[in-house]
Amino acid sequence: MIKLLLRTIKNSLGRFIAISLIIMLGTLIFVGVKATGPALNDSLQATVVKHHLSDLEILSSQGFTETELKAVRQVPGAQVEGVLLQNVLGGKNRDVIALYGYQKNNHQNQLILEQGRLPRNQHEIVLDQQAQLREGYKIGDYFNLEKNPQLKYQKYRIVGFADSPQYIDHSTRGASNLGTGKVTYFAYVSHLAFHSSVYSGMQVYFPELQNQKMFSDKYQRAVKQKTAQVRRHLTPAVKKRRQSLAKTALAQIEQGKQKLAQSRQKLVAAQQALKQQGLTNASTIRTLQRQEAKLQQQRRQLDQQAQRVKQALQPSLLYQTRQDLPGFTGYGESSQRIAAIANVFPLFFFLLAGLITFTTVTRMVEEQRGQMGTLKALGYGKGAIVFQYVAYAGLAGISGAAVGAVLGNQLIPRIVLAMYQEYVVEIVKIPVDWRAIALAALLTLLVTIGAATLVSLREVRTTPAALLRPRAPRAAHKIFLERVPGLWWRLRFFQKISYRNLSRAKLRGLMTILGIAGGTALILTGFGIASSIKEAGNQQFQHVLRYDAVVRARQPKDLTSVQNSLKRSAATRATLPVYTAVVQVNQRQKTVRDVTLTVPKNPGQFDQFVRLRDYQSNHSIGLPTRGVVVSPKVARILHVQVGDQIKIRVPNQKKVQVRIAKVVTNYAGNVIYASPSAYQRAFGHAPNFASVLVKTDHQPSARLTKRWMSDNDKILGISLMADQAEMIQKMNKQLGPIVMIFIGLSAILSFVVLYNLNNINIAERLYELSTIKVLGFYNREVTLYVARESIILAIIGILAGFGLGNLLTGYVIRQAETNNVIFPLTIKPFAYLVAVLLMVIFNLIVVYITHRKLQKIDMVAALKSND
């Protein structure tokens, strides 16, 4: 029986390879994409752990001394280091540079040196490698920084270029209040080059957390708990230092007040002496009044100074975890999107492969009826006979699954990581996804061994005599087209044969349609994922948001000055003052954080800057005088709709409850819009307008924003919509490798499916095809006889694939959405064209292969009677 099994494999090697290949493709994409998300996370984690990336960074407007660092070291397991950091302007284009003080003994946030060496003295600098790639700096060049009170020198010699685990995304270096509001590069100089008696901040590292996956909820909870412990130890130390500094500063002010009091007493005594002497003429009185006014003014100045000291000594502390570093959130969301897609797309891919495999195995068993009858007549039991086909199908499936699992788990994640050039991923770490491999193996056994078992058991129950004879053909019957009056007699002979064959072999036709529809749907889905993500950016920044920049004033009182300054710019087309705040929204124990609340000063002009459209009807709407309008993602997360109440918490204000008046179309970010009157009704006071929406003639450049900043020092910062649009484009770029893999493997699977089904078609019809060849049909006519049916089925399958592709794309992009982004279902005409062209090309190739095979049919062997 084992020899017979081996001989069966040898004699039908093409079918054995076809089953293995289909299973291999299904397993490869299923396991590969499932492994890609974890591989991205684990590779980045290995990189940042190697270079000791801080778990927590704390920055203070007042700075830290060794006393505060010592207090935090009391937290169990905490490793604490002070850091010197200053944002400065420098370089060829007056870029914003995040300048760090390099300390040889520090072990956290170790630089990834790409070229050169680290600083050895106060006049050397290590630059961001991106400065070398973008600006062409070289080792030995001099790098100039603008004069800054915190720095001893302005000119430094470049000795190296590096990447940093704090800046894993090459396209972003964070925000700043200087220049355009964006940090362009980071750099390191010796800490001795700083004029500072305190640290700018501190970095905290917890060795016990490094084995936890940093994008996991478990790690996030652990860091949150550690941060709470750090706060408990740091707050008393900061308060004690503040009180000490305040005591010293206020003591000096108090001495000044005492001197003023003594001066006033002397002035009063002088007034009384002059009055007793009768020397109080008008000139003397004016002199005394001026002195009195001067003393009062000095007293007011001291009071104001005391107030400023109290405010200045209220330190602003900023706690940042790894998730707050530039690029980390985007990277984590990217891997989450791939993981979400992996839960849907590859499974559909595998199910399609399994369906075709089931058909192939079924056909194989049915072809072996004669052999089964012979074995049964020779006395072999049912189990032994079934084993032949179960082993054949199982070996084909397991070999394909094994190769697919190995290639998928190792190849696809490596391809994706190799294409993630915009990220700092120094170590490639690809875990073995045993769960995905086990599930793929289980599905493989189900569609191969399961199919072989079911069909062979059905056949083996038949008597040997029945098995040794061909299966009786089905009785002829009229098809639907024959019942249509006036149609059937108009059809040609070959057309009638094709339609009757299609009706007679319904199962084979259905499998062909499903195979072509599935392949078409997979190709459309691949293109649809990319175009839907791209369309989210187009819709958001070309149709919803119609302004180009947001300019923030330092204080609400500076708004008029800032707006007038912007209006004088030749590039400005229109401006609109707004109030903006990042708020938290709650309802029914659900929370959405980082929601942008925007209130325009003039609601009538708001449509020029933000186009509000009802999410359901797509009709334009205005801002209501009561209630607020929210973006769809907020409503979806909170499970609320128009008319429901939500709670909004603005920083440093009480939580208020408002009604949802409308849900408006918005694709990127979570937003709430309100009119000034609605805001005042909700919060009990008018909004403080401190920002300006700006429309320009063209997309603002770095040069333009720098000019705005230099023209008015009351501008705190500038946010460009182009930067946000770039984030959406980046999502598309990040998913590009996965999408191309989807499309490529979908095309391969489609071809294999068509080829395999065509082989089954020919194998089932050898007797019929040999008969028409004997009757005198030419080879070309015989090929067209078969191809005509394939063309009809292909057309039906492609059309069905269009609908299935839209459904699958819609489901996949819904799974790929994050809490901040919605993707509109978009499949471009180009995708349909490519899908159709690929299916046409594949069909033509299969027809050509069929033509070659039909020329080699052994008609005598095919027509020989089994009797």
TL;DR?
This protein has about 850 residues and is α+β, with helices and mostly antiparallel strands. Helices cover about 55% and strands about 15% of the residues. Strands 3, 4, 5, 6, 7, 8 and 9 form a seven-stranded mixed sheet that branches.
Commentary on this structure:
- By secondary structure, the protein is an alpha+beta fold.
- 55% of the residues lie in helices and 15% in strands.
- Strands 3, 4, 5, 6, 7, 8 and 9 form a seven-stranded mixed sheet that branches. It has a six-stranded mixed beta barrel with strand order 13-14-18-15-17-16.
- A hairpin with a 5-residue loop joins strand 16 and strand 17.
- Helix 2 packs antiparallel against helix 8, helix 2 packs antiparallel against helix 11 and helix 2 runs antiparallel to helix 19.
- The longest helix has 61 residues.
